[in-house]
Amino acid sequence: MTRTVRELLASERPTWSFEFFPPKTPDGEAQLWTALRELERLQPSFVSVTYGAGGSTREGTVSMTERIATDTTMTPLAHLTAVDHSVAELRHVISRLAAAGVPNIMALRGDPPGADPQAEWVAHPEGLHYAAELVELVRSMGDFSVGVAAFPERHPRSPDFETDVEMFVAKCRAGADFAVTQMFFRPDDYLRMRDRVAATGCEVPIIAGVMPVTNARQITRIVQLSGQAFPAELAERFAALDGDRPEDKAAVRSLGVEVATDLCRRLLDEGVPGIHFITMNRSTATREVFANLTGTPAARLTS
What is the percentage of the chain residues whose pLDDT exceeds 90? Predict the structure, then answer.
C-alpha cells in the first residue's frame, strides 16, 4: 500500500522528494522517464507531479501519477488546483486518484492561465475561491494526506507577511498535513516564515522547495513562475560566469549546484523537515546536490 506523506514525515526526517511536470511531447516524455528511473535509485520519500495553469495538464497529471503509483516503487503526490474547475470536476479528479491508489494530494488554488502570475484570478462559477476550500473538499472525500503551498517571500498577491501567514494557517486548519514551499534562494526567508507560522501555534511541517539553477537564462523563467525577484547578489554571480563557451556553461551549472547544496545544508542544520527538489524533468544536477548532502558515492548515481 502506498504510504502517505503524513506517515513519511512522522517516521523519517528529513524527507527527500522530487517534483516533475507532465511532458508535452514524446521526446519530453522519454526525458522525463529517464529522469524518474535515475532518481528512483535514490529511493526518494515521494515524488510530485504538477498541475498546469487552468488545469491545462489535468489528464497528464492524473495519468502520470497513476503510472508512478503502478509502475515504480516511488510514492506519488498529485498536484490539484481549483482554477477553471467546477466542484464536480474536482470531485471527479479526486475520485480517479483514489481509485488509482494515490492517497497524497497537493491542494493549490493555482495560478491563472497564461504567463503572468499577477493576472486577475477569477473563480469558476461553480468552483472554489480559496485553497482552504479545496483542502476541505479533498479531506471530505477520503483519508487523503493533503499538502499546501507556503511562500517564504510571501505570496505575490498578499499585501503583507501577516496576511500571508493568516492565509497559510487557514489552509492548515482546514486539514492540511504538510506544506511545500515555493522555490527560494535565501535560507533566512524560509526561517523567518517558519518563525512567523510557529508564533501562531501552527505546527504543520513545512518542506523546503529547492531548484538548482543550471543556466543563467533560467533566472528569467524563475522570476516569471514565482512572481518574486531573484536575489540580486546571486544574479550577479551567475551573470559574471555566463557566456556561450562550453566552459562558461559548465561554470554556471557548477555554481548552481554549489548554491543549491549550500542552501540545503543551512536548512538541514536548522532542522527543516524535508527537501523537495524542483527538477524541471532533469535529474543530473539534482542527483549531484543529493550526493553532496548525503555522501552518496557518485558511482551509485551514474550506474
Answer: 70
